[in-house]
Amino acid sequence: LLASQVHLKSDAPTGDILLDETLRHIKATEPAETVQTWIELLTGETWNPFKLQYQLRNVRERIAKSLVEKGILTTEKQNFLLFDMTTHPVSNAAEKQRLLKRLQEGVLERWAGDPHRMDRRTLALLVLAHSSDVLENAFSSLTDDRYEAAMNRTKEVLDADPEVEAAKSRGTEMIWAILAAFNK
After folding, report:
1. DSSP H helical ranges for 15-119
2. How many domains does the chain have?
3. N or C: less crowded end of the chain, CB within 10 Å?
4. Do 97 and 177 reside in the same domain of the chain?
5. Are residues 45 and 124 in the same domain?
6. CA distance 165 to 176
7. Sign of torsion, CA 91 23 130 45?
8. Cα 163 vs. chain centroid, distance in angstroms?
9. Is 5 among the domain residues?
10. Angle between helices 173-183 and 120-131 (to 10 degrees)
11. Alpha carbons 66 and 59: distance in angstroms, whole number
12. Which phi and psi (to 5°) does residue 153 adopt?
């Protein structure tokens, strides 16, 4: 799965600057790159001089700026002893709660016992929360028994073999490939 090449299905603009830039890079790449390589390029985790033209610049800052423009985050200067640092605290708690609720309901109320019956966006959210190391925080507001159930179900999904799971279901191969790349 990690050696699978990323092939573009459509280069139609999405309306998101970063996504559209990513699509242009993927389209222009010959030969096609692997999922692992694209994750490294698009997060700035590689210093390959031959691939610099495919790297997205200032990804974190651009994502933060976009979220500020959408009213989800704000921008503040915070003083850390000797220097000031720009931070981006959440300003729209309702949006954060909506995402938390979606994730919690996906592994509790709407749990079907099979990751293939999960909504693709919820599965992607679960993988992204895991990869960002914020999954435990997403469930911290739950009661002890619901927290335990959510973590057990999440562990079941995240411990599944991405190779096997990707082969089982059409449409979620990329999500499983991303999980495999971050679990590597």
Report:
1. 17-28, 35-43, 59-69, 93-107
2. 3
3. C
4. yes
5. no
6. 7
7. negative
8. 19
9. no
10. 10
11. 11
12. -65, -40
